[in-house]
């Protein structure tokens, strides 16, 4: 990570780090700037606010009804946002930046929020 280093240390880090590491750092910084919690710090049954970039959008059937599942990544972890009864939400697409809040559920080591409140963020705020 590039935090806590002097100018020369940051320059050296930017030259030697791989692209994925730099992208993750930018996503974490944008998430903090949006006032969100780091995804790796989300705990079961607690309210959380997360922000990040959408990695994938999937429609699945749950008990015969559709649900839209969105994997949101902030550079520290992934939270799956599940919108029950929805097949599509305008603006929710891969690569889009989103801020979401709600109660966290952790099952099978998968962090999930059901029907979270969400806000579409400007493209430059959390995308790399």
Provide tags for this entry.
alpha+beta, 128 residues, five-stranded mixed barrel, 3 helices
Description:
It is a single chain. The chain contains 3 helices and 6 strands, in the order ααββββββα. The protein has helices at 7-16, 19-33, 123-126, and strands spanning 47-62, 65-73, 78-84, 97-107, 110-114, 117-120. A 5-stranded mixed beta barrel has the order 1-2-3-5-4. The model has no long low-confidence stretch (mean pLDDT 89). It has 128 residues and is an alpha+beta fold.
Number of helices: 3
Binned, the helix content reads 10-25%
Question: Which class do the helix and strand fractions yield?
Answer: alpha+beta
Lateral arrangement of strands in the main beta sheet: 1-2-3-5-4
Beginning-to-end CA distance, first to last residue: 16 Å
Mean pLDDT across all amino acids: 89
Q: What portion of the residues fall into strands of 2 or more residues?
A: 35-45%
How many beta strands in the DSSP annotation? 6
**Rg from C-alpha positions?**
16 Å
Described by the principal axes of the CA atoms, the overall outline is: elongated
Major sheet, described briefly? 5 strands, mixed, barrel
Contiguous low-pLDDT stretches (5 residues minimum) are none
> What is the chain-wise order of helices and strands?
HHEEEEEEH
